[in-house]
Each structure stands twice: as C-alpha cells, then as structure tokens.
Amino acid sequence: MSANIATRKRRGAPSRLLWSRLIVCVIAASSSTANTANGSDDELAYKIVIDAGHGWAKDTGGDPGAVNGTYYESVATLAIAKKLKTRLVENGYKVKMTRTAGEKDLTLAERCKIANDWGADCFISIHLNAAANKDAKGAETWRYANVGTTTKRLADNVQKQLIAATGAVNRGVKTTTAFYVLKHTKMPAVLIETGFISNNAECKKLHSAAYQNKIAEGICKGVRAVLK
Q1: Is 193 a catalytic residue?
Q2: What predicted TM-score, i.e. pTM, was given to this entire model?
Q3: Superfamily of structural domain 45-226
Q4: Is residue 188 exposed (0-12), middle (13-18) or buried (19+ Cβ within 10 Å)?
C-alpha cells in the first residue's frame, strides 16, 4: 500500500514539474507580448535623427550660424537637440544626433547621410532664425514642398505643440524646395526655426535652459502625435 502511494507520488512529480515549466513559459510569453505592445521592443522602436544646426566650438571655430553679440545659434541648437534627445529616448524612441559637440566640418550632405544610412524614420533639424528687422519673433516649421501625408502631419503637429509649449508667436508651417536637408533625406523631415536670435528678448530665452526645455517638450509631443 505505502509502496504504491510512493510510486504514484514519484510518477506525479514530473507532471507537476511540467506544469510549472508551462506556467513560466506562458507568463514569459505574456510579458513579451506586453512589452512589444508598449513599444519597448528595441527592434520595433522608431529611429529619429536630430540635427543640431551649424557647428562651432571656441577652440576649433567653424560655423556658428547666426550670431547676436555673445550668443551663437550653433550653441543653442545643440543644447535644444540634447534636451530633445533625452525626452524622445524616455518615450521609447531610438535617437541618433548628427553632432554632439562643436563639429565644424560636418557638411549638409554628411548630415543627410547619417540619417539615410541608419534608415531613420524621422529627421529633425533644429535652428534659430534671424532677420534684419529686430522686432521679428516667433517659431516656424519647414517641410519640403512635395511630400506625403506623414511629413505634413509631422510638420503640423510639431508646430502646434511647439507653440503650445512655449507660447511663442505662431509663424506657421512653411514649405520649400531649397533646404538641402529636407530635399536629400529619405524619410519624413522637418526643419524648425525655434525663434529669432536677432530679437534680443527672444535671443535670451532661446539660450536659457528653461525655455530650451519647453521647446524640446513641444517638439517631442509633436513627434509622438505622429510616430506612435
């Protein structure tokens, strides 16, 4: 009697082990499915290239972009680009920057090549505007003239969210066939003029971390509205 019970227990042990393994597999599969649905699967994440316009450093010189006294466009664009990268990564996007410091020899063709070779899903170029009229102010977003629906939606949403986040004067979405980086990138691309460095009051805001954070947050929200 006791021998038979012992035999049954021994025979039952593998069955319990099998069920335990099956349960673990089911849980793992469910977790994997949930991660994919939430966009955490690295292979499914959208790839975004951020291009900080121009490129200049105190020790190497280069292209500073527009200048107002001691304020340089290339310095502000890089600071904004870095803050934007942080927000996009936090939201599950894969991000690559065309420059991370004062690279002075980075051509427009090389910036496009970085995005094209990586197979990016989106290209965002950050700039500061300038005008002879020192009272000119506000933000605008540029896209290539002949583009598909995704690029149009990207430009519209980025501009909308940028204005909502910063309270800047809305100069709208504009089209062009002249901007090299919009013409020679193979994915939806926008060029954002975040404000006027030639306007003294706006220039100071554009070089402040607090306002740069608002710009980055607005652009990020605009991207999330389209690439989701």
Answers
A1: yes
A2: 0.81
A3: Zn-dependent exopeptidases (3.40.630.40)
A4: buried
